[in-house]
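--- STAGE predict ---
source: upstream dedup step, 1 unique chain passed
mode: sequence only
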Amino acid sequence: MSFSRYFKLVAIATALMIGYSPAAKKVSSGKIRNASGPEALHEPKGKGGYIPAETGSRVTKKDRFKTGVESLIIIGLPDGSSLTINERTEAEMAELLNEDGINHNQVNILNGKVNFDVQKQAKGSEFKFKTGTATAAIRGTAGTIGFTSLMKLIASLSNGSLDIHDSSLNTEYNLKGGQTAFSIGKETVVLDLKSSGDAKFLDEIDKYISDPALENDKDALIKLVQKADSSYQVRKEQLKQQANCEITPLPDTVYSAEQKVKVKCAKEIMVGFQDTPVMSKGEIVELNVEWEAHLFGAKKISLLCYTDSTNSFPCGDLTTYYIGDMNSNQGNEHKPLTITTSSPAKVCDPASVTIEGTFDSRGTNADLRVKHGNFTSDNLIPYSANGKFSYTIQISDEKGNWIYDQVDVEYTSTEFGTETATLALNIDKTCNSVNRIRPTIELLNYDSLSCNIRYKFSNLDDDINLFTVTTDNISGIESVITQTNPASSTLQKGRHAYVFKITDQAGNSSKISRTLGCYKKIPGAYVKIPGKEIERLRVPPPPKNFTNKFHKELRFTVMGLPGSDPAYIKSVKVTRNKKEIESWNENQINSIMFSVPIELTRGEDSEFDITVKLKSSQKDLVAKKIYQVR
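--- STAGE serialize ---
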């Protein structure tokens, strides 16, 4: 399977969980970080009409934004949050206020969809989105919210939490990271989808959500959305591999509100933060990252890779902790814990990751442990010298830990308290050393009359698999399979050689080969016996002392079968005067023509009845032959 379509900008580069310091009450302003495309428009304070949006322009309360096809606007807010006005969207910055370090922000979405990546909000702060009759409140969340093409609410989160009140449906619910919510009729559906939070993915599934033919078929709609999610993940992973970006991690602690991020990506790949992306050309480029100097605390910087100026996809995250500008002596303060392994660390061949770093060996009662998923190492202090540590973790589907894409290192001591550092992992599931368990397929049952075959899969957990059905050496459409639920296929009419095959991302596969028949009703099928139904035979009397009996052959043919194929015949029976004299079952039949030796007696009538049963479960085919011997 190949995937050649590129994503448009669907993720936002932001800083998360930034602390705050008390400040005077003031009306805040943001900034347009990037405006691209032919129809990126800005209406300052909602007055005077729309004008072309310009990168660097100030954003204030009541400003409106409007985008057309292949256009977008990225807005950076003063608290470190970020918004993306996606293509064909109109939105208003209804509220933008900071009062004693407490934020009051609200975005009204008039149509389309808005990406958001909002920092962790301080107690008392509020960040709201309004979409028609619905209101969504967040405290620290990344995702997308807006309208389907039928102007119904759709909300989707990659992480965080979202409280939604929809007055049109009189419903209130909480949406978690990895979930997508939309309405079917008067019902709200919430699904766990790996592509949640991605605006481009929401555009893809909109064709199903807005299809009137699916409005009353909830199960069919959900299956289509889940299948689209699996396919989208395959394409997204392919783009990440194409970009092949190496990101130099920032120090665990920084003292300046301005940082330079070093990134190297494959040729023809551009990379950026909030501003206009730059071309890497396979060489290291530096990106400027900055935030307001008073916004202390943990920061997450999400980088975007671009295939052109507007089409992008997430390609890596950086984290650090900002403690404020300090003098040179303080700025050189020793850090108690640092991971020196480059992030993200690729796991392929070998199927392992080695985490290396340094810690302050002066700490007493010290404890240093590596954590990955449900695993926690022993204390590494006794095995580490000169404040340096190294630890290797084997990762594969066999070990069950390939689903965890980060490693945490925790250092605790009396002098330094608890420090935690994180290493991101790029686990390549296309590698045989990582992806070792082959998927399997089992046929459950087969019905030749309904032409339906059912099967189930196993060993699919946390993998993306392709299922193909080959008929007479001709491959059919490939399907993406991620779940072990039983599935079914409809067979072609007639008898064919089938191969059912399931293959995972690393090429591990299983297959079952069967020759199966689909026998539907055959109109016009009949039994043909040469001559008339009643045949009079005049034979001379036998010589003296010879019997009156003599022998003959009864011949008949089953006509009207597709391709004259005897595989359609289940059984044949021949009787003489109601007593069976010959029969064949399906394993004995290899022709549509039959010949039966029969015995006739002079002076008697003999009635032969032929009954043919077909596998198509239709009415028996019958024929009769009567011999009158005189």
